[in-house]
Amino acid sequence: MSLITAIRETFLGFKSLLVGLRITAREASRPIITVQYPRETLKMPARFRGHIKLVLDPETGKPRCTACTLCAKACPSGCIVLDGVKREGDKKKSVSKYELDFTTCSLCGSCVEICPSDAIEFSKEYNVVSLNRDTFENMDLYAKIEAEARAWSAAHPAPPAASPPPAAAPANPTAPASQPLNAPAG
Amino acid sequence: MIATRETVSAAPAAQGPQETFVLNLGPQHPAAHGVLRVLMTMEGEWIQRAEPVIGYIHRMHEKMGENRTWAKFLPNTSRIDYLSAMHYTHAFVGAVERAMKIEVPLRAEYARVITSELNRISSHMVWWGALLLDLGGFTPILYAFDDREKILDLLEGLCGARLTYCYYRFGGLYNDVDDEFLRGTRDFVQHLRPRLKMYRDLVTDNVILRKRLTNIGPIDAEMCRRYGATGPVIRGAGVPYDVRRMEPYSVYPRLDFKVPMYPECDSMARYLVRMDEMEQSLRIIEQALDQIPTGPFLAPKVPRVLRLPAGDYSYAVEAARGRFMVRIVSDGKEIPYRVRLRAPSFSNLSLYEEASRGMILPDALAMMGSLDLVIPDIDR
Amino acid sequence: MNPTLDQLIAQFTELIGPEAFAAAAAPAVPPSPPAATAVGTTGASPAAGGGVPVAAAKPAPAPAAPPPPLQATQHALKGYDLDARVAPNQVVDAARLLDRAGFAIDAVTGVDWLAQEEMEIVYDYFHPSQSLRMVVRTRVPRAAPELPSISGVFPGANWHERETHDFFGIRFAGHPNLKPFLLPEDANFHPLRKDYTP
Amino acid sequence: MTFLSLEPIRVLLYLVGICAFVGANAAYLVLAERKGAGRIQRRPGPNEAGWAGWMQPLADGLKLLAKQIMVPPGTDSLLFRLAPLLVMAPPLMCLVTIPFGENVVARDLNLGLLLVFSFGSINVMALMLGGWASRNKYAIISAARVVSQNVAYEIPMLLVVITLLMMTGTMSLQEITAQQAGGFWHWNLFKLWVNPLMPVTFVIFFTCMLAETNRAPFDMAEAESELVAGAFTEYGGMGFGVFFMAEYANIVVGCCLATVLFLGGWQSPIGILSSGAWGLLWFFLKTYALILTVIWIRWTFPRTQFYSLLNLSWKILIPLSLATLLLTGAMMKLPLLWRALS
Question: Domain coordinates of chain D in residue numbers?
């Protein structure tokens, strides 16, 4: 390496350092981009996959779930435990217990995909915290839907017509295009 | 003078017998990016032998594959190399589709290409920042994460997850690509180009970085071949090996892109390959966005319970770190008989012992950074 | 360094022996497509073919029972181009042959065929500069799974063989460092064996 | 007032003043560093403790104080405990002779510069002892690095200072400052008619200062991605805290020295308003500008490689500083030669 190239390289190297300094100075003059989490939060997109939750039929105020256990069978980690009873007056079974072991759930969405009655969806909750491990090991989704159902019935006072609407499979206006195609039944 | 293997290993030998000591690097070490342990036999700061010790986060994904149906194994594929989850899912889905002879709709294929390439860029950004952390530069990783965040937002809006996407399904996708995603991706491409120039000015052209990487950690084509190293490692050794070109899959044959290749065999070559790959990925994404057709995003008539015809099938993709191959063996039942996951980082790290011999410690760590290791990918 | 498929077939025919030679002499005389398909389907074993129409390189009348040791397959269907079944003591020769041909080691792995009382060891190779994938497989008895190591030819096989030893308990004779790798140091079990119960 | 009555007050003032100055600087430079890093990385930095994070140093200090100082088994426990003290003493000593203002100097020695450099070298020893006493492989590697790094960078630094000394003709820092009175064009940095390479000299000095204080991009001693924490790997609690403070104290000393030697010390850049509190203002303005530059550099560049660090010193900085030395000598002596000949 001749002296000229040595000097030239030293000079160019020094210049590259100045360019770097200029860039960081420029960035430093720009506003901050981080979200100050506990004070600011982000809105989750519509397709966000939080933990699953049961869906209330907006017309009847009852969970859509018919306790067919397809979701439990489709779950790769077997983290769904559910049970159903045939209540009086109903043609189908309805859910009576729905527990999710959130510690092993991988949020893959197989259960949501396979559900024939669109009774499960992802919640948008992402900051679920607890001091108790049990909260996540046995997430009682049925209790939540019960609470929702009570709220529903509080908002919709006793129906004028005593007879409930025909309990046909509810038409789903929001049915996603992706019906379960791949998830295995068992 | 650059400390190459020749110059460095010659130096201590001239002074007669030296005392060596064993440096236990890891499993918790700032440069190991996870739980990688390297047992280094050192002479001063020179490495005589560096033996990677792995398996600290071994999860036995291959056994899990033998215990569940094909569809139930799908979420696992996102978790092997969590930084390029799309590619891994693609390989597994592709293997099953190959076995079942499922024709994937064109829209799904294009969406797979777009998401895969976005994932590649985001993966390279993590690598870029982490390499700079290894080299003692703290700021670039935050710039890279700023841009990566935009990719993650896009993908989250598309499939609901930020890292372990599990977006592909046998025969298509989990859900359709929406216009918002396509528009956002187009904007992102426009956004990233000037940012890549900024990366170049701030880091690539920086004299300190050049000195840290040029002529450091020579890995030549022959070594890559004997160890099966792929991805940017082999492309940095002057071999334009890219699964997207060598074993074309998806709609890559319809897209025009260059396979970046640098013949210098050093860490800088591997660095430049990845930087160029980001630009090429942008090109691919732009073309795919232009060409993506309307239509179904899932193949019709994919049976719910998959029973693959007996036999073995393999499917390889170009993941962010190199060739990822899934070899599945089916005995006709509904659960796999054997799932073999060939991880690129595994092969890329296996040459470390040979390549790092006689290097000086910081250079060896710079070389490790240039290999772009993801430890869960190695351990699986 | 860039061998054609035909050259590889010829070399492997030489390695495996005359019965394979009969099987693989085909490419010299292009077979008629229906014959190839027919042979492919009949000549597929549950392990290696599996009812997929394989464009076998063998037009000669094939006995249904033993599948041809050397099969040219369609990449689009199987993911590889050539499938060779060799004897356990031939894996090193096969590795040398492929090393000379410029192949790179892709992966080494095992498959436990519990019903047949056999362990299959599969060597995957890819070629860095052309679109050619090669699978070499061999079987060892399950009772004494041992075969020579190819880590002397491909050092990259070292780790793959260690892993296979971990998972299947297959011993690779001549391997420099066959100690537990991904499993804990004191592991005395082989989780990918089909009769393994945790 | 007699000498006897004044001296104890002076000593007391110095001790209290310097300790407070160093302590406050160390604490708040950490905050400045973290805030600066935050700005550059486009995040707010520490902002929870107190208003905009102003209580952060206090919180950090309390946390460090509350921690147990572990002495790992097998270490040389005396040296292990001594090293943090040794590392703090030199910067305290160096500040004795730094003139902060027209009258604000603890003791204006006529060999002040020599004192600064001799005590500055002790710093190396402290780091080395700390590393060696830790009985940790990373620490020992770091100790070895520190020594060769400091040796390599003392040379160009001293050569540059000799160049300056040829111009000033004195080692008293107060006098050097006084010589630069009357506007920034009188500062040593801009005395291009004596030596046109003066800015280069300043860059050399600044680079060497970074290397001597083990600051990025020359932080070989710490190098956390290679050596975990280098010489401080085994230190915890306030032991580590003192090392940390010493680093900032050293930076303060280095930047003060650079200000005095090149930027006119407490002299105002416009030639007036240099006396009294104005002097202090100018001095700290310049010093903190330099310190901020040091922080800015740290958050911009990756770390250099060890041998390129040595190469930079031996192959670039030393020849360059020798060249400036020769040039300065020639420029100073040529008029005399010319006069003698004519």
Answer: 74-341
**CB neighbourhood size of D192 (10 A):** 12
What digits encode the pLDDT tens for the residues C133-176? 888 888 888 888 888 888 888 888 888 888 888 888 888 888 88
User: Hey, what amino acid is at B362?
Assistant: P
Backbone phi and psi for residue B314, each to the nearest 5 degrees, phi listed first: -130, 155
- Sequence spans of domains, chain B: 5-53, 61-378
Residues C104-133 have pLDDT tens digits of: 888 888 888 888 888 889 998 988 888 888
- Do B235 and B260 meet the contact criterion of CB atoms below 8 Å apart? yes
* Minimal C-alpha gap between B138 and chain A (Å): 12
* Gap between the Cα atoms of B3 and B211, Å rounded: 11
Tell me whether 0.90 is exceeded by the ipTM: no
Rounded to whole angstroms, how far apart are CA atoms D247 and D235?
15
CATH code of the domain occupying B61-378: 1.10.645.10
Specify the pTM: 0.84
> D45: alpha, beta or left, given left = phi > 0 and alpha = psi -120 to 50?
left
Strand partners, B47: B42
Question: Is residue B131 over pLDDT 70?
Answer: yes
Considering only CA atoms, which of D187, D118, D188, D196 is closest in space to residue D157? D118
Q: Do C192 and B95 touch (CB under 8 A)?
A: no
A111: tokens are 């259960």
Does A177 contact chain B (CB < 8 Å)?
yes
Closest CA to B61 of B42, B74, B46, B45: B74
Residues D43-87 have pLDDT tens digits of 888 888 878 888 888 888 888 888 887 888 878 788 888 888 888
Rounded to whole angstroms, the Cα distance separating B10 from B2 reads 13
Looking up tokens 């860029």, which residue turns up?
B121
* Interface membership of D224 toward B (CB under 8 Å): yes
> Which residues touch D5 (CB under 8 Å, ≥6 apart)?
none
First to last CA, chain C: 46
By C-alpha distance, the chain A residue nearest D207 is A14
